[in-house]
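Risk register update: the risk of archive-format incompatibility is retired. Evidence:
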Amino acid sequence: MNDCLFCKISAGEIPSTKIYEDDTVYAFLDITPINRGHTLVIPKKHFRNALAMSEDEFADLNKKVLFLAKKIKEALNADGINISYNNEPAAGQVIFHTHAHIIPRFKNDGFHHWKGAPYENGEEKEVADKIKNAL
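Archived output:
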């Protein structure tokens, strides 16, 4: 889609901090992470949300989300991981392109759903490198 932010990111038209890419998915750090390492995983093919995908397409996406979630947990020594999809505005969907949130969790992290903060100067690359090195 010409006006889709995530389509533009996966096509390289808008910069992002890429974590992983293959023929069907693109994963990158969220620019306002809940916790450091908060990653978005998107299919390269445009779908409004997960509900618009076939079972096979969604299964393929989820296999990669699970792989990345395990690696992110390991790389960042997280105590847990949230994996979520928001589908439609009532569920908190803001960008209408399927995307999974992988959010590292830490004991007493004060996590509140969807309240993030930007990275400090240079911190984004450091976190991205830790994750990439674990892949």
